[in-house]
Amino acid sequence: VQLVESGGGLVQPGGSLRLSCAASGFSLEYYGIAWFRQAPGKEREGVSCISSSAGITYYADSVKGRFTISRDSARNTVYLQMDNLKSEDTAVYYCHRVGRVSDPWGQGTQVTVSS
Q: Half-sphere exposure of 98 toward its Cβ, with a 13 Å CA cutoff?
């Protein structure tokens, strides 16, 4: 079981990025997948998640209306489209299977929002 995050980078405030979470060893469509982030000196926090099958989505209040989570089952990948980025979105972003506490965490992808 492995999830690999990618797509981060440096972007100006108001800009956009699309993060990818690619799975290997299992099919994403059968699991809920969540995005988390961890900023320097802060605890890891949940950002968004998408359920299996029905694809029900959830967003933290801090990103609601700006971020969109989606799943491409053919590519076995979950995406996080991030628009209107703010400096407070700066963090390392991770994806993880919902409820699978024994799954290892990936290396994440760094998102830096700065002018």
A: 19
